[in-house]
Design brief:
The protein is α/β, with parallel strands linked by helices. The chain has one domain (10-248): Vaccinia Virus protein VP39 (Rossmann fold). Helix content is 22%, strand content 29%. The chain is built from seven helices and 13 strands. The chain is globular, with a radius of gyration of 17 Å.
Length: 250
């Protein structure tokens, strides 16, 4: 079972239909008694999820995540020294996990980063066309394991990605292995402990069943890092009620 803290005790929390209304399937979510981590049980297979991760999935839009035109985003990043919550990655080896159609990757390269990205998809979005992005099906941790032994990155980002994977602890372990000495990872996940989320359960948009296999709380995210000797500092982002987790390489 995918509890972050290693506990083997959990119980049914709620059932809810597909959040985006694409069908009327009901999904069950269980909660760990040790760290309040929630997860879909049973876990849908990748074959079941392919219906949802189709070419109309919004993160596959080339401008998904952008607040403005590329040139203006680059100008803002250079002026503030920050791009999507991280220091401008000029000259850094950057890996963006779950890149979607590659907007963050595209801007980072224009800011001077040596960038690569991995994303899970049925088929690569037709509009992407970025050869630095590797598309695959299946488990994240298996893809990480296939990376050459010397592969390392100064910065690894996973923006609203870890909640989509069936093996979050193993994914964090693989991210840590790919971090260069002194590097850091920036990880954002929805915050299942936000009061409205708790009250509405599966009806709250950030629950996003069945895309979100995991429902993290600040405690369960910290526990997931602790299990990998990953020094995670959890900071809440009030703009979208997600947990920002900054993990420095041990």
């Amino acid at each position: 079972m995918p509890q972050s803290c290693g506990s083997t005790t959990s119980s049914w929390a709620y059932s809810a239909p597909t959040t985006r209304g694409l069908d009327q399937r009901e999904w069950s979510v269980f909660e760990c008694s040790g760290c309040s981590h929630q997860y879909m049980n049973p876990q849908p297979s990748w074959e079941e999820l392919q219906f949802y991760y189709n070419n109309s999935y919004d993160p596959y839009d080339p401008v998904h995540g952008s607040q403005n035109e590329d040139d203006r985003m680059i100008e803002l990043a250079k002026r503030t020294g920050v791009f999507r919550h991280i220091p401008v990655p000029m000259g850094k080896r950057l890996l963006d996990v779950g890149c979607g159609a590659g907007w963050f990757l595209r801007i980072s390269k224009k800011l001077g980063a040596s960038s690569k990205a991995w994303s899970r998809a049925n088929t690569p979005p037709d509009s992407h066309g970025n050869r630095a992005c590797v598309y695959f099906t299946g488990r994240w941790s298996h893809t990480f394991e296939q990376a050459p032994g010397a592969t390392q990155f100064d910065i690894i980002t996973a923006n609203h990605v870890v909640e989509h994977v069936p093996e979050p602890v193993e994914t964090l372990r693989a991210i840590k292995r790919l971090l260069a000495p002194g590097g850091f990872a920036w990880i954002a996940v929805p915050n299942a402990s936000y009061p409205i989320c708790g009250a509405l359960k599966g009806l709250w948009h950030i629950t996003d069943l069945p895309y979100h296999l995991m429902q993290f709380t600040p405690l369960s995210m910290a526990e997931a890092g602790r299990g990998n000797d990953f020094d995670i500092t959890v900071v809440l982002l009030p703009v979208d009620f997600s947990s920002l987790c900054c993990a420095k390489n041990a």
